[in-house]
Fold this protein.
Amino acid sequence: MSAAYESMWKDLGLDLAAHDVLLQVLGNAYRDIFLSQKDRPGGMDYFNFVMSEVHGLRIKELLESKKKGKKVIGSFCVFVPEEIVRAADATLVGLCTGADFATDEVDKILPRNTCSLIKSAFGFKLGKVCPYIESADMIVGENTCDGKKKSYEVLNTLVPHLYVMDLPQTKSAEGRAVLKSEYYRFKEAVEGLCGVRIDAAMLKKGIDIVNAKRKAIHRLSKLRKADPAPISGLDALLINQVYFYDDPARFTESVNKICDELEQRIKEKKGVFPQGTPRILLSGCPMAVPNWKLPWIIETSGAVIVGEESCVGERGTRNLTDNSGQTVEELMDAIVERHFQIDCAIFTPNPDRLNHVKEMYREYNANGVIHYGLQFCQPYQIESYSVEKALEGEHIPTLRVDTDYSMEDVEQLKTRVEAFIERLK
Amino acid sequence: MQAAGIDVGSRTIKLVVLDVTSGDIVSYRRTETTFNPHEQCQRILSPRQWDALVATGYGRKLVQENFEAHAITEIQAHALGARKMFPQCKAILDIGGQDTKAIALDERGKVRKFEMNDRCAAGTGKFLEFMATSFQVPIERFGDFALSGNAGLTINSMCTVFAEAEATSLMARGHNPQDIALALHLSVVKRSVSMLKRVATESPLVFSGGVARNRCVATLVAKELNSTILIPPEPDLIGALGAALHCRQRMLSGDSRAQS
């Protein structure tokens, strides 16, 4: 696809040589990890196509919509309410944070003991290889963990339109008030950017677009309860990742289409792994494209992943936004209410998450939980202790894995994961 | 019928052959892994005297792919092997060439929980070997060398490179090499025991892996845990023994085909 989009990438200011390297690495990884899987649902063809065009056709679409006046907003977090963005007829995209890139440049401005996710965001910017960040009319940072919070101060010197959203750290009345006032401030910023005034009808439309996307994911998740699993965890993760990039209506339709196919598979008792394959619930830090290392290790070690307790997964898509309000205030309250329930580890205390992990373990008929902590991610790494204790208290087999985006620990991880799976058999 | 287990470790390759009917050990041997593990495996595996083979260790996939074997992890292999030697065993500390593992077993001997060292070889056999070289003491004698030292010094760094720098500066300050060696051993033990305490506090504990041959490490582990520990006569063979036992189980349960 390279040649056809070269001038587009050049206009965006990408470093073409570096970008070619990235696409090649990405393409090879995709082939080895995804296309090599057996018995994939036919509906994955759509997602293969999306991935093959993730820096191509999708960017072209965004740029064409920009020409018509539609704005593009980039985000790093599920606390950025997509409903408000869609209400203003703008596009929200997730920004690239799933791979190491331009690490030498990143090491010059961030401490080495910064998590891979933050480093990756900077690497894609400094290496000039992310067409999304370069297409964005506004980039939203959010004060979640200290690493992100402080690094946005640095990112602000590298990008022209950074908007920082403050977030509460406790699930208190005061916390809710902070979220509410921040969402109103964000609504105003989006209105300013797009030159519109968001009314109740627009807000409701925004809510409906995003709810439809979430509902499709909920449907997919339910189908993963079946044994044999009708879809691999890798493919389901990919769909959850594409959630952040794709046109929402088209995405919703494609997910529903693959769900029709999976329903048929379940009727025929057809799966991607044999019945009785050990079933894993993944829990922990988000996995952005192309962070597929751990799921790939798990699913090539004789187990299948049946759920993701993660922002790129159920933590991000759980709960719909109530669309029954009639006024902007009521609908905004519903958006606040829906997002305030997100059980991110930046909240203290965060008991909901422990309950959700246990609930998902049962719901998806899992046999064990693998907790994925991104190295130097203090909130999730520290909370992994409580997660492990809560699970082991109920005799749920648990493995804690701390890793990053490098490949140097693959063999050690394989041994750990295989030994954990042996335990489940 | 004979069942074989091969443990391809970072430092040595071990083979144990069992009589399937009795479960007794028929033979065992070891060889260096070297830079060519494939060739070394070929050497230790011929002539073929067994009917089925199970591989473990970091090179298990190599054996699985090239020698018609089934593969299990070191964790499971050590659990099986230790339990065979000491049926009452509840916990295992295995220190090998590049891995340290702490394993907790349930009543039936199944793995309940385990932990391994991360991507760094500090606190493993490699670390001790590296240090022995810098002390110009053969690795086999390094433990006894350290045992003759006096306690009191501490090495704080667990990084092989920094620990050597610490040891060097202690030497430069005129400390006894034996005392420094003891401090290095103690640092390995402290690290291993803290890993062990995270997963298993039950006793009896079996200490396996090549490093269990080191008398200083064994003494210090028992002291740190304040209990007696069980060390098999050939501690480095426990992984291969476990693999052979797994192989025997597979054969007895009718799956005589070696391949998984």
Notes: The interface with chain B takes residues 392, 402, 408-409, 411-412, 415-416, 418-419, 422-423 of chain A (CB under 8 Å).
